[in-house]
Amino acid sequence: MEVVIVPDARAGGELVAEAMAQLLRRKPDAVLGVATGSTPLPVYEALAAKVRSGAVDVSRARIAQLDEYVGLPAGHPESYREVLRRQVVEPLGLGMDSFLGPDGAAEDMQAEAEAYERALAEAGGVDLQLLGIGTDGHIAFNEPCSSLSSRTRIKTLTEQTRKDNARFFGGDIAQVPTHVITQGIGTILDARHVVLLATGESKAEAVAAAVEGPVAAVCPASALQLHRHATVVVDEAAASKLKHTDYFRHVYANKPAWQGL
């Protein structure tokens, strides 16, 4: 795995945004896989700034959703479709016709999961998938012990995850959905380039397990070790538990600039 250590979250956001911009210059209709949460916000802000300055044209890009709550009504402000509309689609000047994502209010969720797999395939697959990582090593909503070959499917949220997300629902855990639809680990690994972004000391143990530990279902993010083009971008705090930081710094410092991420 390629590991890039940056000074802080802002630098990480700029680096990943530039990787997206370089991709779009090569392939204007690229499919960008996006994640929710606070970690990727600097990426979206930096990419939107590039669009406003004219440094990159995203008009033909498509945005692919990583996961979604099940059971929230259409337009609910905490549905991930709405979050991504506010944080990614509109700031980039795109319309929702550019958006690919599962319908969390569908009557047949298994059919919806299968339909989303087909939609991604018909779009040509995800060119760059941005991921965060949980403190337990989960990616998307693939919790520890998820199958490393899993596809888009329905998952039951753990009580801890629902408690963690209650802050987005007025602190009322009863309002937090009990299920989600999520890309599986196998689906994520289909992306041509996977970029995992992690910041903060709370993510250090998970990053170390994903990068330097064994490939194991107990740490879903470790499956990225098997990917042909996986990049892990971490700030100094998130890199603090890694044992081979000198090696990672040396490799990236001596990488030809034209290769980018």
Can you describe this structure?
Keywords: Allosteric enzyme, Carbohydrate metabolism, Hydrolase. This is Glucosamine-6-phosphate deaminase. Catalyzes the reversible isomerization-deamination of glucosamine 6-phosphate (GlcN6P) to form fructose 6-phosphate (Fru6P) and ammonium ion. Belongs to the glucosamine/galactosamine-6-phosphate isomerase family. NagB subfamily. The chain has 261 residues and is an alpha/beta fold. It has a single domain, classed as Rossmann fold (3-Layer(aba) Sandwich), CATH 3.40.50.1360. Helix content is 33%, strand content 16%. It is built from eight helices and ten strands. It has helices at 9-26, 41-53, 80-89, 109-122, 159-165, 185-189, 204-212, 245-253, and strands at 2-6, 31-34, 62-65, 67-69, 99-100, 128-131, 153-156, 179-182, 193-198, 230-235. Strands 1-10-9-6-2-3-5 form a seven-stranded parallel beta sheet, with helices on both faces. Strands 4-8-7 form a three-stranded antiparallel beta sheet, covered by helices on one side. Strand 2 (31-34), helix 2 and strand 3 (62-65) form a beta-alpha-beta unit. Helix 1 (9-26) crosses helix 2. The longest helix has 18 residues, at 9-26. It is globular. The termini are close together.
